[in-house]
Amino acid sequence: MRTFFAVVSAACVGQQAVGFAPPSAPLRRFGTLSTFSRTGAEPAGRTREEAEAARAGYRREKAASWGTPTRHRDDISGLSRQGGEAPEIVKQMEKLKAEQAEGEMDKPIAGELDDLMNYPSQMVDLEKMDVEARISMIQADADYFAKRAGWKADEDGQTDLEARETSWSGQAGMDEVENFDGAWAALPKRKLLLAGDLLALYLFAFIGRASHGEDVSGGLLNLEVWQTAAPFIAGWLALAPPLGAFTRGSTMTVQMAAMEGAKAAALSMPLGVCIRAGLKGELPPPVFVGVSILTTFTFLVGWRALYTKIRGQEDEDGNREENLVDTVKMVLTLIKRW
After folding, report:
1. Among 17, 41, 183, 221, who pairs with 126 as Cys (CB 3.0-4.6 Å)?
2. Which DSSP letter does residue 166 get?
3. Membrane-crossing residues (predicted)?
4. Is the pLDDT of residue 147 over 50?
């Protein structure tokens, strides 16, 4: 609604500033509306000269009825007609405002002063102002009209909340783009990706022990399976983060996820084999080395490509394509509304 009132204000005062309307157009007589509202006269059909004459006659008539000098009203009327720089006009307005506060001004005249204070574009020549100042002035007029119409307008001292402090509800949501800078510092921010990596290595150890007829009962609670996977997990955690496997770019697209995962696995898995050999105190058979590196490589790259596909690929600006996660969120939101 604030935009609507800004358009209305711009239509009223902006055209006068750039000279779009002829002198006899109703928009050029906008400064006389406060007087017409008191006299009951109709502004439509009057020229500017007729409006000023009516205004002067009204001042003389009211001055006689009030029994007070017309200096204040002449000063106020002059402010609404004169052009010039805003600071000088503001000084004059402050002087009149001080007289109003001291009780030296009659209430009807003080009311017109309040109108001018609340409607600032009447006091300045918009044509002499730069674009930014002109927009601010028109925006102030829009706030004035909004208040007069009963709408809530911006007040001084109000602050806007940042997007991350805003409570979002409904089907729409907001994704905050993070760069995940750093090596190991990015791990707490990418818990799901890290958990998938660990499960991929656990699955490798589980299949290896099962193929040799060793005990794999208990599932994820089987400590012996975790002991088999531990050297490879250590190698992965030691080299994958500094190699960029947990940066934002590593999962932007399926292709990048596969490439970054392959680079990290190609270096970290041989390190895992070396750690296992050191713990065992013997070199493993070449077949075991080849199968271990190839299997862990496949599991890690496959998991990361699947993760990126489900999460949704994104571009450099953080715009993400439609994905399964968003679809699930939408369904859950609709169920919650029911």
Report:
1. 17
2. S
3. 283-303
4. yes
